[in-house]
Write a structure and sequence with these properties.
Number of strands: 7
Distance between the termini: 36 Å
Largest sheet: 7 strands, mixed
Radius of gyration: 19 Å
Number of domains: 1
CATH architecture: Alpha-Beta Barrel
């Protein structure tokens, strides 16, 4: 997966609490096991009207936020069923970072495994970031994973915590397969040793 080091991008305010995975990617988009192409279904029930046209009131349809890479969202983001399609859809749309006060555990873990940085902040810090995100075209945030900082358009800075192992994986672009491949020399050495000890196998 792509490395996550420093991300500077437009932050979209999603002022909704308890955004569940069915809201993120509705069930009718779950027929595929491909990770690409799901961006069109992201928040589909809010982004589109019944006739298929765009809902101009939904934040990601507004001109300033069409290329948002950061989502500032309400409490308990990613709750509901444990569908990995939810982070796939966010990533395919272009979202690399989601900031909230809390996340559902399975969604939170799936984000890290798919190259998305989920950041937990205090309610007070979320209010500040939501204010920044409401600025439209000027709603640019910089997320620095190495320093564990979020810098706002006015120079304000918020720090965040992240598990050191997960941080290492994101900084180096390592998913589960990448982590296994890091140990390839040790695996090869073990296989050679086992072959020598048990040549009949």
């Amino acid at each position: 997966m792509d490395k996550f080091t420093v991300l500077t991008g437009v932050a979209a305010p999603l002022e909704i609490v308890n955004v569940d995975t069915d809201m993120i990617i509705p069930k009718n988009y779950l027929k595929t096991i491909k990770r690409t192409g799901l961006g069109k279904g992201l928040f589909a029930e809010m982004r589109y009207r019944e006739d298929g046209s765009e809902n101009p009131d939904f934040v990601l349809n507004k001109p300033a936020y069409r290329k948002a890479q950061i989502l500032v969202a309400g409490d308990n983001f990613g709750c509901g069923s444990s569908r990995e399609h939810a982070p796939w859809a966010l990533l395919d749309f272009g979202i690399r970072c989601v900031i909230s006060t809390s996340f559902a555990d399975i969604f939170y873990n799936n984000c890290f495994k798919n190259g998305i940085l989920p950041i937990k902040v205090s309610p007070e810090d979320l209010d500040k970031l939501m204010d920044d995100a409401r600025r439209g075209a000027n709603a640019t945030l910089t997320v620095d994973l190495e320093r564990q900082e979020i810098r706002g358009p006015d120079g304000g800075c918020i720090t965040f915590d992240v598990d050191p192992f997960r941080k290492h994986c994101l900084l180096n672009g390592l998913d589960d397969i990448g982590l296994t491949m890091e140990k390839a020399p040790a695996i090869d050495a073990y296989e050679e040793k086992a072959k020598a000890a048990h040549p009949w196998l």
